[in-house]
Amino acid sequence: MNDENTKKSLGTEPYKGVRDFYPEDMFIQNHIFSTMRKAVESFGYEEYAASILEPTELYKAKSGEEIVNEQTYSFKDRGDRDVTLRPEMTPTVTRMVAAKRKELSFPLRWYSIPNLFRYEKPQRGRLREHYQLNVDLFGISGINAEVEIISTAHAVMKHFGAEERDFKISINNRKILNFILHDAFNLKEEDAYRITKLIDKKKKISADEFKNQIQEILNDQTDNFVLALNAQNIDELQKRLADKTSQEINGFAETKELLEKLSSAGITNAVFDPTLARGFDYYTGIVFEVNDTDPANVRSLFGGGRFDELLAVFDVEKVPAVGFGMGDVTIRDFLETHNLLPQFSSKTQIALCPFDESSLAYTSNLAQTLRSKGINAVVDITGRKVGDQIKWADKHAIPFIMVIGENEIKDKKFTVKELATKTEASFANEQEIIDYLKRT
Fold it and tell me: Quick check: 321 and 102 in contact, CB under 8 A?
């Protein structure tokens, strides 16, 4: 058998865990991006960008061993340098701030919608490649920074059409978590790190499995530890821990103040959750997570927190920072679950259908006139029958069509038809057509 016949044909599926965006998908994607931009820019945030390639050492420094060793796409380039496709944006933006910190005017309100890559098992709400809105506030150490960043996250959800009942904002504090692990239960650093990772996975495993894994570390302290984590509010947690230390040091007062200020700002769906840890090692204070209240979406939608120490890896002075990241995959699942996805419509406003070949030149010139006035117009140049041209326009969700033939060219009388309603409007010149299309 000849080699040509034995060659395996190329598959048409994309790489596992990534997506193709057909026009209908891009319509939704652009809606997601434009909604994100509108929401965060209303708070004064400015857009930045960077390459998807970073030195691997950037992630080894602060993202966490699991991210680097198990979830990155890393390789050596032709210069034998270790390079990684970015799995997250926070190390990149802190690198950028560190590079020009002397020239920048703080506070900085920055956002970006980067493409991110992680090698993990694809599932609902999680792929190997996605886009993520990153919003960061640099230069403010007080709790008002958290109030603003969480208010911004809340506003993004509202811009998408979400009601307060559709999502909740869970809040914790790494200072509280550190107090529980180091002061209340006297854990060594290695055991505290292991338990932090277990807490981060608590909602993804059964209660028995969680308790069994905790017991391997805490032994006879397990029941008291689990009881503390099951506290319904921050006051109950303090009582269960018999807290004797300063609230300012261990984060309780800070967290209470945040919850009170969010409530005063009209955000009524923020709750304290002592089991919230967030997976990244660089968080230093408040952490938060946004969850869908619909059981169809059990995953976290997005989250963030304070990361004051991250610039230290660049051997520069500390800059206080707080931010969040919202992925496009989870927010699309949310919009779909709550029937908030927009209906596809074409950016093309009108399809011009030449009746025959002799009408094509005039039709093309008319289309060019419409475009010069800001109207998106397409000309069917296939030479097929008018009926087939109209069917094509309808299938591509183009709202208006206009047939151009000998009579239209001679009499300068044009009829524009709206496909959805089947209504028609007649016009005596090009300007009338332009005015009509701009009004609709």
Answer: no
* Rounded-to-integer distance, Cα 7 and Cα 416, Å: 53
**How many whole angstroms from its chain centre is CA 293?**
18
The tokens of 107 are what?
């506070």
As to burial, measured by CB atoms within 10 angstroms (0-12 exposed, 13-18 middle, 19+ buried), residue 56 is middle
Question: Which helix (DSSP H) or strand (DSSP E) does residue 96 occupy?
Answer: helix 90-99
Place of tokens 């602060």: 62
- What the block records as the tokens of 217 is 């570390």
For residue 34, pLDDT beyond 90:
yes
Beta-carbon contacts of residue 389 (< 8 Å; ≥ 6 apart):
351, 353, 380, 382, 401
Per DSSP, helices labelled H in 265-358 are 328-337
Cα–Cα–Cα angle for 56, 323, 99, rounded to 5 degrees: 50
Q: What percent of the chain has pLDDT over 90?
A: 68
In terms of Cα–Cα distance, which of 353, 344, 347 is closest to 437? 347
234-273 b/e with 16+ CB inside 10 Å = b?
beebbebbebeeebeebbbebbbbbbebbeeeebebbebb
How big is the chain, counted in residues?
440
Q: Which carries the bigger pLDDT value, residue 189 or residue 105?
A: 105
Q: Can you read off the two tokens belonging to residue 338? A: 């709550």
Using the predicted structure, report yes or no on whether residue 125 has a pLDDT greater than 90.
no
Is the pTM higher than 0.90? The answer reads no
